[in-house]
Design brief:
This protein has about 120 residues and is of the alpha+beta class. Helix content is about 30%, strand content about 35%.
């Protein structure tokens, strides 16, 4: 497993995408970027369009991954979600902001995943 944060983040996103698909989500977009920021995963869960921030760590030495999704990060995700909604004309949908925490275990190559639905309000 690579040790740089970009590789760790990409691995976390792959694990998260597989978890979401297994959980019945439909992936709509991955790494959506615009001038306001980036959203890791955008998926449909029933009636909701979910904007999902994936946080991946190797162990919980630096606190839980979701703690990194602070108010300014939430604002950035919210503004980026608004751009996505405008571009895709998704005005008649319900929206939700979720966070997925992925903890990688370097010793045995396993991972744990935690989905936090409605992690914050826009």
């Amino acid at each position: 497993m690579g040790s740089n944060s970009k590789e760790i983040g990409a691995l976390g996103e792959e694990i998260s995408e597989a978890f979401l698909v297994e959980s019945g989500y439909t992936i709509l977009d991955r790494n959506f970027r615009c001038k306001t920021g980036e959203i890791d995963l955008i998926a449909r869960d029933g009636d909701h369009i979910c904007f999902i921030e994936v946080k991946t760590r190797c162990g919980d030495l630096f606190g839980s991954p979701c703690e990194a999704v602070n108010f300014s990060k939430q604002q950035k995700i919210s503004r980026t979600a608004q751009m996505y909604i405008l571009r895709k004309k998704l005005f008649r949908h319900c929206f939700r902001f979720d966070v997925i925490e992925v903890i990688l275990n370097r010793q045995n190559g396993s991972s744990s995943i935690k989905l936090i639905k409605n992690a914050f309000d826009a």
